[in-house]
Amino acid sequence: MGEIVLVTTNSKSISSLTLGVLSIIIPYIGFILGIIGLFISRKSIAEINRTNEKGKGLAISGRVCSIVGICIQSILIIILVLGIITFFSMNDNMTF
User: Would the pLDDT of 96 be above 60?
Assistant: First the structure.
């Protein structure tokens, strides 16, 4: 009789996709989530190649979402810092 082989999906790839999506959605904290998601996706791809588990597409999607989230959050943080600098520099020059 034939053997039944159960191939599981790598749990790290699911985590990397979740963190990647959250890095796009959650402001400011998303930068940290994106970095964590990037490292987890790298580990999951290596683990998938070693163990032949399913989930390589999820891990790649997690990596892409993490990179996009890091870029969006970096731009958001730069805009915030420039806004704060502009606000405080305008207050120093104002006289009543």
Answer: no
Residues 80 and 42: their CA atoms lie apart, in Å, by: 30
The arithmetic mean of pLDDT across residues 47-52, rounded, is 92
| Collapsed DSSP state (helix, strand, coil) of residue 54 | strand
As a whole number of angstroms, the distance between CA 21 and CA 33 comes to 9
Q: Torsions phi, psi of 77, nearest 5?
A: -70, -40
| Residue 25: partners with Cβ closer than 8 Å, 6 or more residues away | none
Does residue 88 carry a pLDDT above 90?
Answer: no
CB 13 within 8 A of CB 51: no
CA distances from 63 to 19, 27, 83, 86, 87 (A): 9, 18, 30, 34, 36
The shares of helix, strand and coil residues in the chain, as percent rounded to the nearest 5, are: 80, 0, 20
Tokens of 34: 């994106």
